[in-house]
Amino acid sequence: MEDLRAVARYAAEAAEEVLDLFEKVHTDDHRPREAVENAWAFGRGGKRNKALRVTSLAALQAAGEAQTGPATHAAWAAVLAASAAYLHPLAKATQVKHILGSAAHAAHALELDAGGDTGVGDGHIDRAARRASADLISVLSRYPAAPHGGGRVGELIRRLDSALRQRS
Q1: What is the distance between the alpha carbons of residues 140 and 96, in angstroms, rounded to a whole number?
Q2: Could you tell me the sign of the dihedral formed by the alpha carbons of 75, 76, 80, 81, in that order?
Q3: How many CA atoms lie within 13 A of 84 on its CB side?
Q4: 153 close to 105: Cβ distance less than 8 angstroms
Q5: What is the pTM (predicted TM-score) of this model?
Q6: Of the candidates 65, 70, 69, 103, which has an alpha carbon nearest to the alpha carbon of residue 84?
Q7: Which of 163, 107, 114, 122 is nearest to 140 (CA)?
Q8: What is the pLDDT of residues 133-143, one digit of tens each?
Q9: Which pLDDT band holds residue 87 (cuts at 50, 70, 90)?
Q10: 12-33: per-residue pLDDT in tens?
């Protein structure tokens, strides 16, 4: 459970950094924020409960309804933060996106907000790599490397995955 909490804290921090990109477009929609708040609650010792699933699904719906690219990816970061508590223990490469996807979606949201400047996303990934805890890296190291595909978000996941594996 502590491993899942480490992943949830990392994902919640990443998602929280870009919530404003969603909220400035959707001022009355609190679904992504609620997902992040529940991820933080779990990461700080709360129970793995129905609220995590409910708010993750609500944030997913918000992502589908978002009116801009940055808002969409900010909501996706929230989805992955709230669902981090349910990381599958089977060591499949596809699970890496559940560990690092929130940070990658946050980076892509920021670069889209900067007019598509990939340097902004790359810089964010560099910072995300530096703030990863030893516990998070330990969890990541139990999984194969991130798989190919996934467009720009997949590229950012692989970049972060590679940086963290070099630290282990």
Answers
A1: 7
A2: negative
A3: 40
A4: yes
A5: 0.96
A6: 103
A7: 163
A8: 999 999 999 99
A9: confident
A10: 999 999 999 999 999 999 999 9
CA dihedral sign, ordered 31, 71, 74, 56: positive
Name the amino acid, one letter, at 114.
A
- Contact between 18 and 68 under an 8 Å Cβ cutoff? The reply is no
Task: Please provide the DSSP assignment of 115-150 as one string.
Answer: TS-HHHHHHHHHHHHHH--HHHHHHHTTSPPPPS-S
Burial environment of residue 20 by CB neighbours within 10 A (0 to 12, 13 to 18, 19 or more): middle
On whether the CB atoms of residues 92 and 146 are closer than 8 A, the answer is: no
Q: Which one, of 32, 52, 161, lies nearest residue 99 by Cα?
A: 161
Measured distance CA(135)–CA(39) in Å, rounded? 17
Token pair in block for residue 150: 């996934």
| Tokens linked to 16 | 């929280």
Would you say residue 36 has pLDDT above 90? yes
Q: How far apart are CA 127 and CA 118, in angstroms?
A: 14
Domain boundaries, the chain: 2-167
Task: Answer yes or no: are the C-beta atoms of 75 and 22 closer than 8 Å.
Answer: yes
- The Cα–Cα gap between 142 and 126 comes to 22
